[in-house]
Every structure is written in C-alpha cells, then in structure tokens.
Amino acid sequence: MLSLKKLSLASAIAASVALSGCSNSSSSNSDDPVAGDVAISGTASAPGGQIAYYQEKSLLEIASGFLIPRAVAAISGLQPVQGADVELIRVDDDGEQIGDVLATARTSVTGDYSLTLPQGVNLAGNLVVRITGSNNAQIRSQVVEQDVDIDPASEFILQKFVQSGASLENLEVTDVVRIKSRVAEFDLTASPDFQLADMLAELDKVVGEDLEGQIELATTEDGDVATIAGDYRSSAIELGLYDSDNNSGGTWASEIFTANFTFASDADGDLQITLTSEEGLDSLLSGPSLANTSLFTFGDINDEAESFPGIFKDNNTITLDVPFEEEVDGDVGFRSPPATLRLQKALNSNVFVLANTETVLRYGTTMEGDLDPNAKEGDELSKTLEVFAQTPSGDSPIDLNGAFGRVYLENDQVAGMSITMTTEQNIVNFRSTVLDATAGTLQDLTLTPAGVEYFTESAGVEETDLPFELTDNGDFVTIGGDPEDGFINADLDFIALFSADDSVSDESEFSKTLMVRLPGSTPTIAGNSYRVFGISTGFTGGEAIELGGPRFNTLLNMSSDTEGALEGTVVTLDRADFTSQVERSATAIDGNASVTVGENGQTTVTITESGGTTELSGFFNEDASIGIFTNNFTPTDGTTDSLGLTILMQVNP
C-alpha cells in the first residue's frame, strides 16, 4: 500500500518532495547557453576495462546479493578504458548516429578524457559521447552536463530513453541529469571478467523498472488532478520470501492490509495525498525447513494522518517517489533502495492498481544501536498487489443490485505442515439486501514438508439469500451474517473484499476478493491495450517457492476480440528451500494470447509459452476497461504448479 510496514513509505515520501516540480518533454532546450570553449570531461570505465558483448557470460556480483544504497555509490569493480577514441556525435530517437563526428578525444591510462564542444553545439539529450569496442559494441553517455562519465550505466540510461520512444532532442537536460544521478543511488559491484551485455541485462533487472518510471515522469504531460480528487480506500495482499545470509533458515511472509486516503489538489494544482488510517495483519512462517517452522502473526493499526505529494500524469498514472530508506527496529536494521511506484487508473473510473516488488536488506546493529553496514543478516523480498477505489459520498443509502464477476485468492499456512494457495471464480448477484453466488470453480495448490505439491480442481458451493450490510460510504460490514471488510467504489461497479484470520493456533489464513459489474452483452475488446498487473505463487519442486508478476511495462494488445500479443517483463523471486538465498530475475516476454469472451463478460485468456501454458480465468466489466482474473501456470509435461490473481487495466481510449 502507500504506507508499507517495513518502509514506512508515507513518511518517507513526506520527507522527499523533490518530484513535485518535475518538468516534461513539452519544453525545448532553446534557452540553453550556446557552447563556446565549453570543456566536456569524464572517465570511461567498463568491466575489466574492455567493451565487448560476445564473450562467455559471467554473473554480475551485486553487493551482498542485492542492492545496498549508500550516500555516494556507483558501479564499483569497473576498470578504466585506456587509449580509446571518444567521439562526440548526435543521435536520432532510435539512438543511431546523425551526421558526422563533431569532436574526438582519447582516453588516458586512467580512462580520463576531455574535449571541447564545437561552436553552436549545446548540451542536449541527443548529444552523445561514444566509445566503440570489439564486435562494434559501444558504451555511450548523454552530454547533459560538463562532467560526463561513460560507463555501462550511462549506456543503459540512453537505451531506456530510446525504448520509451522519447524525443531525445527535446528532453530537458535537468531531467536527464536527475535520472543519471538516480542510478548512482544503487551500489553495484562488477567482477573483472563480466561482459557488457550481461551487465546491461542485470541493470535492467535491478533498476530497470525504477528508471522506466522516472523517464515517464520526464516525457509525459501532467494530468488534471481535479478529475481524481476524492476519498479512497485501498486493499492489498503481499507475499514475500526472506532469507538468512548464514543459510540458517528462511521465512514465508504474507500480509493483508487496507488504508484510507484523500486525493486532492494543492494550491498549485499538484496532487496531494493524505493517508488518514491504515491497518493490517502480518504472518511469518519461519524455520530451517517447512517441517520445522514456527508461525508468528502480528497486527498493526495507524490512525495518524500524513500527507505527501504525488504526480498525476495525463496517461492516467500516479507516480510516487520513494527515497532510499534506513531504519532500526530494536537490534535489527533495515535498508531499502529507492523506488518509483506507479498506480494505473482505470480508463473510465477512479479505480487504481499498484503492483510492487519490494527489496529490504536486514542488518545487525552496532553497540551504539545504529545499523551496522558490515553485519548484513539477510534479504527480504516481496510482491504486492493493491487496488484503490474512490468511495461513495455517503449522502444516501446504497441500493446494490446486479450481477458481478468474482475472483478470489487465499493463502493458508500451518506451522510445520503446509502452505496452500486457493483461487476461485464465480458470479455474485446482489439484490438490495441479499446476494446469491454460483458454485464457480475452485483450485487448490498445496506444498507439504515432504516437498510434494498437490493441485486439485473442484466445484465450489452455490449459496443463496445471503444477507449483506453496506454503509452509505460503501463499506461492507457483514456478508452472510459474518463480519466482512471491504468496499465498493463510487460508481458501484467495482468491489474489493479482504480477510485475515489467525484465530487458530499455528495457522493463519488471508484472502482477497475482487468483483466487477458484468455487462449485459458481449463486450468488444478488439484494438484495446491492457496493462497487466498480477501476483502468483508457484511450488516448483522440493521446498522451492517462486513468486512472480509482470512489470509495469507489460501490455496485452488485442488485435481482435479473440487474439492478442503479450509483451513486457516478468519479475520473479524464487528460493530453492528455506535455507537457500532468495534470487530475483527479470525475463522478457513476447507471446500470443487466445481470448474467449462470453456474453456476460466471462473471459478466458490462454498464453502458450515454451515451457507451458498460462491461463487467466475471470471477467471483464461493463465497458471492458477492467478485467479481473485468477491465473495459473501448467508446465508442458506436468500439472498446474502456480496460482494467483491478474488485473487488466485498459490504457488506450
């Protein structure tokens, strides 16, 4: 959620208001001073001092296994590129050279170089210094200030700008400088024999999504905050894998939480977000093996209001900038790298979705009680799926009627026994004060201490005449006579419910439900583009657990009502067993999807991959701008080994 338990995100953002004045690409650089005897200098460095793509790959060694931000940081372990030609050139928006080389220099034995800008050549996002190595591999750096280092990070940033489709010539140089400094907040260490292509891939894995968000800020126009102003509720489920650096044991972590917010315009028309309350329940299943785990649960309630800035863009996104965070809790210290969080708004309603991958590093403390950077104890990685909806005004009672498609995700953990994921899809009919629910389809995936995964599929239970209570401001109070927590949005077409139960000793159960109002006839999705959000849990052999979900750049583009193309990136967190280290990977996806949409919006999306098939089962809403689904993955030669939730948000009008 916007105020995460471990990161204290709301307070962190409140202390960092730097993004509230970000500019966009509509301005030109016409006011930049014309160059004349302006010296450009810097240092060229690369793994092993060599620039090469096509050699045997090795792994990038990230300090302590993941990212450790510090006050002054860069990619350490690089070596100076000696005796190399540095060329000053212009590039087009595809990163290709335009015209002749404008100036040249040569690097010294320490990798340093210096050149003078020709008359009439200004600092700009399309002005580049370049060094070319073997196999025509090159590293480049945008010349947006006089101190211009050339290294894999500068090449990575330029490639990200090209991939974004930005007009390099019209970029504000201050935005490029800011984004370059962003990468310097991540501390990476390269082995001497590491190759450039692998380093660029690793940079994309650990800082790629953050940079994509920062580039979007620099290249997208501001939106009208008045269109999203109002009171909001959110609910989220978070799943995590924690490890210990000494391999003594690990944790399966899960959390359900909810919060209340107000979105408003400040005096300058910028977005101001106020967190008014939040509460959640955490569950930690920890030990050296599943058979020897203990369960710890604890709740958290915060009614202290906090306000912080966000940035609303005309592509219907809210961006929040999270700075590097360091805190101490008792005798344990925590560090978290900076992050750019993006919420996607639904096309035609004030419903937002956020999917986040969080990295936290755990440390011991010094005798004085400070975090000890030399006493790292482990990594805590998690994935979150959160929804936000503007709530009804509360001016009058809500008469809720109509059919809603429902998807459901539950995770249940029992100390020393099992972890079980459950999904369900069915249809719920509301009739003013009671509801009916169809039987639907249930899927269960269980991991046991024997390292065995069980998958079963069965019919759910039909229920009729269940009474429900709904307040005037859209809060659900009870369903079927039992306490319920959740909300409906202001348009009365989107519902989020959630529950947490730790009443049984050594067991906890969390669940999340989403519903959308169903259309009266088959919706048309041809030509629509959908941003894909999701979370999934896989049991992949022995005690191996895998958490997955798409990155913000992942889109499903529908060429017809039945065929689409999926492209983007999937981020995966996995651990071989409770004593193993958690690994993070990012994999590009580019595949075809077959889609079947029923007359009531009930939908199946089938994505065939080289290793198996992903199936989304769920529903589109009335105008097909939001789709909610359960997801499962079935290997080509096996049974289903992964379950989760997916949300599709239309991004094109």
Question: How would you describe the overall organization of this protein?
Answer:
The chain folds into two domains: 25-219, Sandwich (Immunoglobulin-like), CATH 2.60.40; 225-650, no CATH class. Helix content is 8%, strand content 52%. α2 packs across α4 (196-219) and α3 packs across α4. β11 and β12 form a beta hairpin. The strands form seven sheets. Strands 32, 33, 34, 35, 36, 37, 38, 39 and 40 form a nine-stranded antiparallel β-sheet that branches. Strands 11-12-13-15-16-19-20-21 form an eight-stranded antiparallel beta barrel. It has four helices and 40 strands. By secondary structure, the protein is mainly beta. The two termini are 27 Å apart.
Write the layout of secondary structure elements.
Layout: H1 9-14, E1 39-43, E2 45-47, E3 75-76, E4 78-80, E5 85-91, E6 97-106, E7 112-116, E8 127-132, E9 138-142, H2 152-164, H3 173-183, E10 188-189, H4 196-219, E11 230-242, E12 250-265, E13 271-287, E14 294-302, E15 306-313, E16 317-322, E17 325-329, E18 332-336, E19 339-345, E20 351-365, E21 371-390, E22 400-414, E23 418-432, E24 434-437, E25 441-447, E26 453-459, E27 463-470, E28 475-479, E29 482-488, E30 494-501, E31 507-517, E32 529-539, E33 545-550, E34 555-558, E35 563-575, E36 583-597, E37 602-609, E38 612-620, E39 626-635, E40 642-650
Parallel strand pairs: 3-10
Antiparallel strand pairs: 1-7, 2-4, 5-6, 5-8, 8-9, 11-12, 11-21, 12-13, 13-14, 13-15, 15-16, 16-19, 17-18, 18-20, 19-20, 20-21, 22-23, 22-31, 23-24, 23-25, 24-27, 25-26, 27-28, 28-29, 29-30, 30-31, 32-33, 32-34, 32-40, 33-35, 34-35, 35-36, 36-37, 37-38, 38-39, 39-40
Helix pairs in contact: 2-4, 3-4
